[in-house]
Amino acid sequence: MLYFVATPIGNLKDISLRALEVLKSVDEIACEDTRHSLGLLNAYEIKKPLFAYHKFNEKEISEKIIDKLKSGKSIAVITDAGMPIVSDPGSVLVDKLIENDLEFTVIPGACAFISALVLAGLDSSKFCFLGFMPDKSSERKAFLEKYKDLDLTLIFYSAPHDVKKDLESIYSVFGDRKAVAVKEITKLHERAERFNLSEGLPTEPKGEYVILIEGGTRQNQNLNLTEKEHIELYIKQGMDKKDALKAVAKERGVSKSSLYKYTID
Known about the structure:
Blueprint: E1 2-5, H1 17-25, E2 28-31, H2 34-43, E3 50-52, H3 58-70, E4 75-78, H4 91-99, E5 104-107, H5 112-120, E6 127-131, H6 137-145, E7 153-158, H7 163-174, E8 178-183, E9 191-196, E10 209-213, H8 227-236, H9 241-252
Parallel strand pairs: 1-4, 1-5, 2-3, 2-4, 6-7
Antiparallel strand pairs: 7-10, 8-9, 8-10
Helix pairs in contact: 3-4, 6-7, 8-9
């Protein structure tokens, strides 16, 4: 069996009893950074063989993990913090596991963007997690254009050196909106900074951030039509004149009487 195990994103106490049980029971542990993971494992007196599994060796090590599983070993996969695969290595391995019909499961736990959503105070009833943005400006703009009209909270990860650039890119495409930048989640200096995109981050960026942006408004493409074209569209779709006038008035936020002149001919 292979286990994807969530680890703390700051406070070492944020690990489940089941996660500790699994880490103590497996034969080997794959770590994003073995030196970093030793801090967690030593804190809970877990002594297991470790090997590196990160984005630069993911393809090669995934093959080796498959071989280990086929030989009868059980493996746990952890990252430096949070849930494997979510903006971290693991997706290549999942494809290999499915391809080889090998069993795997998840040991749930801390996840930075979910915690940030709770802290942000924006709409949490519906949201979209977008992870890290592309590096190139052209790709970044095209990426953001796809999501600017979504009427739900948008969530991004941002590296320390990219925070200002990311916020400027979002503002250039989305316009002014409410934003929240969350950092140091579960740590002593945990903070959620609320601001408008036009103002920028109120403090100098330090550390990795989760950036949350207020949702946009879906634009009704019918509003690009003239009043007459708008009414004719609904009549062509089978509505009588009265219902078409009512529907168009509602969509355009005007009275039916103001639209009647467009139906005289």
